[in-house]
Amino acid sequence: MDRSRRSESSGARIHILSIDKPPPRKRRLFVGIELDDRSRGACAAVAEELRKTGFAAKYEAPEKLHVTLAFLGFVDPARVDAIAAELMSCAAQSAPFDVTLDKLGAFPHERKPRIVYAGAREQGTPFRALAANVRDRYEALGFEFSNDPVAHVTIARVKESKRPLPLLEFAPIPLDVAALALFESLPDPANNTSRYIVTQCIALGARD
What we know:
Blueprint: H1 3-10, E1 27-34, H2 37-52, E2 58-59, E3 66-75, H3 80-92, E4 97-101, E5 103-107, E6 115-119, H4 125-140, E7 152-157, E8 173-177, E9 179-188, E10 193-203
Antiparallel strand pairs: 1-3, 1-9, 2-7, 4-8, 5-6, 6-7, 9-10
Helix pairs in contact: 3-4
């Protein structure tokens, strides 16, 4: 037998495995308004007063309180630059304004609440215009929105609604809307919840 052929057949074979990289993690994003310390503290106080009534719900941590304008959902990282560019354009077209949070409300309604919020009886023209501009721009990027934007801060969530929302009055909370923010929702398994971080914040009326 040919020695060279015998050597080739008896030698160890090397298999090279190709390992594909996993696709980049999608990011859960939404556009909204950050609360300043005063309004955040006031909304947290409303939540605490509601808790004292014995109303059973999962109350939001104060650091998570915000106003949502457009929930974008899970987004491919490749789209983030376009999303950020639209955020800047929207902010540039709106001047700072105020919204007054002056009522306790719930979605879908107060008789069977699932989402409890501190909201505004009067949305106001500046808020409506800003929210419409944000929604229009992100719809042009392919995002879809089923509900109209409402000026509100979610303070509690009800897993199983068993009683109507209690009547609770509170002092009006002025909210200074001075910037648009792009939020990212990240898992917080240690606390069995999520946490929000602001990835970009653009002052209203800011120009390049």
